[in-house]
Amino acid sequence: MKQKEIKSKKKISRVEVTTDTMTGRGGISLFVKYLSGIKIYEILVEHFMGIRKSRKGVSIWNIFKQIMCNFYDGTSRHLTCFDEIKRDEGYRAAIELKQS
Hints:
Blueprint: H1 28-37, H2 40-48, H3 60-73, H4 81-86, H5 89-94
Helix pairs in contact: 1-3, 2-3
């Protein structure tokens, strides 16, 4: 199964040295690009597609992307953090997640 393309207004096209200060989550966009580049989503979808009973809700690859970004971010170990970051527009944009 192919990964759906998320249309974002701005995407990273190159990485360069800068004097700008990055936030604590500044590297998460690069991490998302890395995960897409190694095609980990395709492997996960292939193995876990059977657990999804309907097409409603969030896609399998999107769930794994959020989980891996949460591991990378490391600011919270609680499942309730997903409810909190769901409302964070900056975080959604950083991980290229559509508003639900």
